[in-house]
Design a protein that fits this description.
The protein has four helices and no strands. It is mostly helical and 128 residues long. The radius of gyration is 15 Å and the shape is elongated. It starts with 18 loop residues before the first helix and ends with a helix.
Length: 128
């Protein structure tokens, strides 16, 4: 990967998945590629937490796709919590200088619309 590509989100892929799942898939690919460049000393701490939390988001989104409305609300709450945790871990990575400021801004631009879509999906599911 070229160094300038590390700070640019990947193009959107064509898919039959829900838009929020597709958007998160693109964010996840970008995050995983970006954490590959973190220092080795961070591999078992910050890097691992970011990667695991990002994968938890994908797991929750896919799970919610197949759940009934009652179960979906709790799953989407958990996804929302994971997105919040991910934002905190990314801020920490930026503060530790593992993640450049411009890459942090890209990450937030990828995460925010997903968070908004999850919130809207949760509200719609809660209303029944």
């Amino acid at each position: 990967m070229k160094s300038e590509d590390a700070h640019r989100p990947p193009p959107l892929a064509d898919s039959s998945l829900l838009p929020v799942v597709e958007a998160w898939e693109q964010a996840l690919v970008w995050l995983l590629r970006t954490t590959d460049h973190f220092p080795k000393k961070a591999r078992l701490s910050v890097t691992l937490r970011i990667e695991q939390t990002a994968l938890e988001v994908m797991d929750g989104l896919v799970t919610a796709t197949f759940q009934r409305r009652q179960q979906k609300v709790a799953t989407l709450d958990a996804v929302n919590l994971s997105l919040t945790r991910l934002r905190v871990f990314l801020r920490l990575a930026r503060e530790l200088r593992y993640l450049p400021t411009d890459a942090h801004e890209v990450a937030i631009r990828l995460i925010e619309p997903v968070g908004q879509q999850v919130g809207a999906w949760r509200r719609a599911s809660a209303q029944g």
